[in-house]
Amino acid sequence: xxxxxxxxxxxxxxxxxxxxxxxxxxxxxxxxxxxxxxxxxxxxxxxxxxxxxxxxxxxxxxxxxxxxxxxxxxxxxxxxxxxxxxxxxxxxxxxxxxxxxxx
Length: 103
Fold this sequence. Notes:
By secondary structure, the protein is α/β, with parallel strands linked by helices. It has one domain (2-98). It contains six helices and three strands.
């Protein structure tokens, strides 16, 4: 199983499915060779806790905005969220992006 997951195309598929990962499971992900969590959704994941615990092993992809912010927030609120995420989680190991698809 680990050999299959370490193949890049399968790892990319798994990363896309990890929307509610718990910190307790992060070591398993690291052990099988995953080094990015995508998406990191701030309304259901504590990005700062993941960064503190696994910042040298896992990069965080996403982190910007809750579903509510993207639906109802102003451009200034989104800019402030981007700056906060950079300050709290960056610059290393952060792939700054919306935490949700923007439709």
